[in-house]
TrEMBL record:
Binding-site list for ATP: 10-17
InterPro entries according to UniProt: GK/Ca_channel_bsu, Guanylate_kin-like_dom, Guanylate_kinase, Guanylate_kinase_CS, P-loop_NTPase
Functional summary from the UniProt entry: Essential for recycling GMP and indirectly, cGMP.
Protein's name in the database: Guanylate kinase
Record's signal peptide: none
Superkingdom in the source lineage: Bacteria
Organism of provenance: Silvibacterium bohemicum
GO MF annotations in UniProt: ATP binding; GMP kinase activity
Length: 236
C-alpha cells in the first residue's frame, strides 16, 4: 500500500547516508526526497543526487512562498524538504523516505502525525568522533573544534529519541540495514489485511523489537555513553 511517509534522523556522522543507500537498493516503491540546502557541495557530491544546492536568497524565497514541508538552519546553513517531494511520490503510488534532522522531523510530525519516525544512533561518542574525523580527512582537513561541536550537537539530538517510534543503533551496518528494511516491510504489512507468511511474521517481529518501547535495554549503554542518562536514571 503506497502513501507511507518514513522519517529517519540521526546525528551527523552516524552512517545514515550509507544505511539509506542500502535500503533504497532493497526496497521497491520507496521514493527518496532530495533535500534543498544552501551549503556548498562536499567532496564528490552532485546536484540533485545528495542535495539541491541553491543560494540563500533562493531558499528564503521558497520559504516565503510556503514551498517547504519543513526547513531548518543547521550550523549556519539552511536545509529543507520541498512539499512537492511528498505529493510527487504519492501520485506515483510510492512511499516516501525523508532523511531529516531532529528539528525538521519535529516540524513534519506536526503536519503529518501519521508518519513513521526512525532514529539512528551511533554506538558511542568515540565511534562517532572516529567517523567524523574520517569524513573530515576525506574532505581535506580535520578541525577538532568542528568535531567537538558536532559531538555536542549529537548529544542534544539523542536527547530527543523519545519523539521517534523506532530506534536503531548503527553498531553493525548489515544488522541496521536488515532492521530498517524490516520496519518498512512491517509498516506496509500492517496496512494490508490478510494472513501472514512465515517470512512476513519474521519481519514484523524484527520491526517490533526496534520500537522505542521495546528497545530501552539496547539503547541504554548509548544513552549513558553520551551522558543523556546516568546509571541510576537510565531505563531498563
Amino acid at each position: 500500500m503506497a502513501g507511507i511517509l518514513f522519517l529517519i534522523s540521526a546525528p551527523s556522522g552516524s552512517g545514515k547516508s550509507t544505511l539509506v543507500d542500502r535500503l533504497r537498493s532493497l526496497e521497491k516503491d520507496l521514493a527518496f526526497s532530495v533535500s534543498y540546502t544552501t551549503r556548498p557541495p562536499r567532496g564528490a557530491e552532485q546536484e540533485a543526487r545528495e542535495y539541491h544546492f541553491i543560494s540563500r536568497e533562493k531558499f528564503e524565497e521558497m520559504i516565503e512562498n510556503d514551498e517547504f514541508l519543513e526547513h531548518a538552519d543547521v550550523f549556519g546553513n539552511y536545509y529543507g524538504t520541498a512539499l512537492h517531494s511528498l505529493t510527487d511520490a504519492f501520485i506515483q503510488g510510492k512511499d516516501l523516505l525523508l532523511d531529516i534532522d531532529v528539528q525538521g522531523a519535529s516540524q513534519v510530525r506536526k503536519r503529518m502525525p501519521e508518519g513513521v519516525s526512525i532514529f539512528l544512533m551511533p554506538p558511542s561518542p568515540e565511534d562517532l568522533a572516529y567517523r567524523l574525523r574520517g569524513r573530515s580527512r576525506a574532505e581535506g582537513s580535520v578541525d577538532e573544534a568542528v568535531i567537538s561541536r558536532r559531538l555536542a550537537k549529537a548529544r542534544q539530538e539523542i536527547e530527543n529519541y523519545r519523539q521517534y517510534g523506532y530506534i536503531l543503533v548503527n553498531d553493525i551496518l548489515d544488522r541496521a540495514v536488515e532492521e530498517m528494511s524490516a520496519i518498512v516491510s512491517a509498516e506496509r504489512l500492517n496496512r494490508t489485511p490478510g494472513s501472514r507468511t512465515a517470512e512476513e511474521r519474521r519481519l514484523i517481529e524484527i520491526a517490533e523489537r526496534c520500537r522505542q518501547r521495546n528497545s530501552e535495554a539496547r539503547i541504554k549503554p548509548v544513552l549513558q555513553a553520551f551522558g543523556v542518562l546516568n546509571a541510576e536514571t537510565a531505563p531498563v
